[in-house]
Amino acid sequence: MSALPSVYLTARVVAPGTVIRIEDGSLRRALAEQADIADVLIEAFRVRRDVIRTAAGAALEMIGRTGDSGSAALRTYAGHMLLPHSWVDATSAPGLALMRSAGLEDGDLPAALVRGAVLRSATPGTVADAIGLTYRTGGPPADLVVVGAGPAGLAAAVYAASEGLNTVLLDRTGIGGQAAKSARIENYLGFPLGISGEDLARLAMVQALKFGVRIFARYAATELDVRGGASGDSAACGTAVCELAGDELLTSIVVERPAGPAERLECRALFCFIGAEPVSDWLTGVGKDPDRFVPTPGPLPCQTSAPGVFAVGDLRSGSTKRVATAVGEGAAAVSSVHAVIAG
Ligand SMILES: Cc1cc2nc3c(=O)[nH]c(=O)nc-3n(C[C@H](O)[C@H](O)[C@H](O)COP(=O)(O)OP(=O)(O)OC[C@H]3O[C@@H](n4cnc5c(N)ncnc54)[C@H](O)[C@@H]3O)c2cc1C
Predict the structure, then answer these.
(1) Taking the model in full, what pTM does it have?
(2) Nearest ligand 1 atom to alpha carbon 178
């Protein structure tokens, strides 16, 4: 089981042994039915990903110029997708050697080498295509399409797939949403030492793949044909801090609100927790509140005004904007999905 829809990693055997090739479906059945084997394999997958990631696997090599926007976009994509990869600056000695061996010219940068193929003027889209991360039609029909692979979407996908639903998960940037940008999430239950958002996202992705979720990114939903699906998205913050005051220590801040005059607030500390705008324009035919969050009037949990469409996590009007609530709502929405499928 690769962490990606199509295997692009290489391996080297260092001791004699036997390779047993198991079909995807049989492996997932074994993982579901034999807990002792599942424990060993899932831990091996997790460790393998960490090793490959930190050892900069040779399967995806990217080369470009530091400071160039195209190169930065490639690196950002690989980071968001938690792709094991190596990055080489084209002006360094290893970079020049790689350029020569791959037959690359300056005008070809940034470039990517994937499974022996050389992608010139590479973009996140061409890399995603080469490693099988762009959506391809023709697979089994999906019971549930989850838009957004933040904590809410990942949870919905994991719960749905573990309960037997054929699940597709799409994200326009990568895995983990806002949470993946958090250096340390201190308050998520079960992690007394805290956990980095990236680690949480990586573990959730391994869990999703274990249950057979088909993950595609970069894949942005741009429109909704209201016949079914679920969605999860990002947070908003309407108030802006425009001034900090104090000598050695902070004593007050000035905040500006969208409506009303600026206001000075006494305070001794400021916790920067900068939110994001809800991405809901593509949800055509679904009711939204004035701030573009999506209300869930029901009757099923997380159900929007459109039957068969559920909103979870930060996108949901009135949500708490926390990882734990996003995960809980993702799980809750799946029970609603079962109810819709059962008619
Ligand atoms: C820096 C930072 C630190 C934080 N720290 C904490 C913390 O310590 N504890 C805590 O509980 N919470 C924390 N939060 C808040 C927490 O991360 C969010 O509440 C949580 O990520 C919400 O999850 P979500 O899945 O609802 O949305 P998001 O995490 O916003 O994920 C939404 C996903 O949807 C994708 N998407 C959007 N539109 C489309 C589209 N049209 N098509 C396809 N994909 C789309 C986005 O790319 C994104 O990946 C933090 C947030 C930030 C920014």
Answers:
(1) 0.75
(2) 29
